[in-house]
Amino acid sequence: METTTQNQTTRYSLADLTRYFLKLGTFGFGGPVALIGYMHRDLVEEKKWISEDEYREGLALAQLAPGPLAAQLGIFLGYVHYGVWGATLVGLAFVLPSFVMVVLLGMAYKLYGGLPWMQSVFYGVGSAVIGIITLSCYKLSIKSISKIEPEAIKSRWILWLFFLTMAVVTAVTQKEEVWLFVLLGLVYMIVKAPPKWLQRRNTSLSVVLLAGIGFWEYNPGELVKLGLFFTEAGAFVFGSGLAIIPFLQAGVVNEMGWLNEQQFLDSVAVAMITPGPVVITVGFIGFLVSGFAGAAVAALGVFLPCFVFTVLPAPYFKRISKNTSIKAFVDGITAAVVGALVGSVFVIATRSIVDTASAVIAVITILSLIYIKKLQEPYIILAAAIVGFCIKTYL
Q: Is 60 exceeded by the pLDDT of residue 201?
């Protein structure tokens, strides 16, 4: 297929693109920012399969609509020249490797999670994860809201107010309500760019449930709960897979009681040490709750909204992206979600940083990521696992 766009691109097949995303999903470490960087370098600059304009359009859609950033951009790039089939195969290829990895890690965790050596390993890993997420929260905040500068804060003070409000609410109540995110998004839309149809129409979100084919033992009723919960969470992940953490922490630990705090933190650690989209941690959580069937339903629930919100608006996105009301709505929700993420990290940290050694590991993690260029999270997780094992075993 010969593509002819504003910027000349190179011939490639759907099989070529699928193989690329299978490889990226297998070896692509570093989180959403790194993954979208790899796509630009490989597909736009080197292979020239995708034009600069197509890439920018896809990135804008990924940032505007709910869904994990890297996965949504990949799905859009698959859609560009090969439509729904391209989006489907690219999405599966990108997610499948990390899904297999988290299921295997879930099997190991169930077998060995109660042993002292495994607990000592995750003692260090959990502390490092707190450091990683804390720094990610800072980066996500200045990227999604504004830089920490007087003029920037002044110009976007409403978003910072949403951010602080949700951070405090989450830290105090230790839960989030989806309606509150939507409400803040609507408030910001009304303030910044009220649409003409606002008072004439009401919009609602419908929840779509996909169930996977399971094996091992599972509870059908539990699978329905898993599917509904993770589909709801997937519909409100804006900008980064880390944004799903507040939903998961509140629902999985506090409301549903599927995991305890340490198990949840371990699931976040698993997401950090596996390649591909960070949000694939839901597969690990689903496995712990209800085996392979739970993992499949959780992953489908999270990625289904991502797929739908990419494929449906893709043909009309040039017009949608110029709608100031939609932009304002997304900005409001994003500020609230990032604030909730900060509050959630505070809650997790108060329960995971249990002594001086764990606090030191978290601080060293933050400083290492700041001052050591190109240091990737899996190396930090590995080092923290070794340190945690040594501390618990020999001290």
A: no
| 3-state SS string for the chain | CCCCCCCCCCCCCHHHHHHHHHHHHHHCCCHHHHHHHHHHHHHHHHCCCCCHHHHHHHHHHHHHCCECHHHHHHHHHHHHHHHHHHHHHHHHHHHHHHHHHHHHHHHHHHHHCCCHHHHHHHHHHHHHHHHHHHHHHHHHHHHHCCCCCHHHHHHCHHHHHHHHHHHHHHHHHCCCCHHHHHHHHHHHHHHHCCCCCCCCCCCCCCCCCCCCCCCCCCCHHHHHHHHHHHHHHHCCCECCHHHHHHHHHHHHHHHCCCCCHHHHHHHHHHHHHCCCCHHHHHHHHHHHHHHHHHHHHHHHHHHHHHHHHHHCCHHHHHHHCCCHHHHHHHHHHHHHHHHHHHHHHHHHHHHHCCCHHHHHHHHHHHHHHHHCCCCCHHHHHHHHHHHHHHHHHHC
Q: Which of 163-172, 191-200, 218-227 has the lowest mean pLDDT?
A: 191-200
Domain extent listing, the chain: 14-88, 98-394
Task: Tell me the whole-structure pTM to 2 decimals.
Answer: 0.62
Give the pLDDT confidence of 268-312 residue by residue, as tens digits: 777 766 766 667 778 888 888 888 888 889 889 888 888 888 888
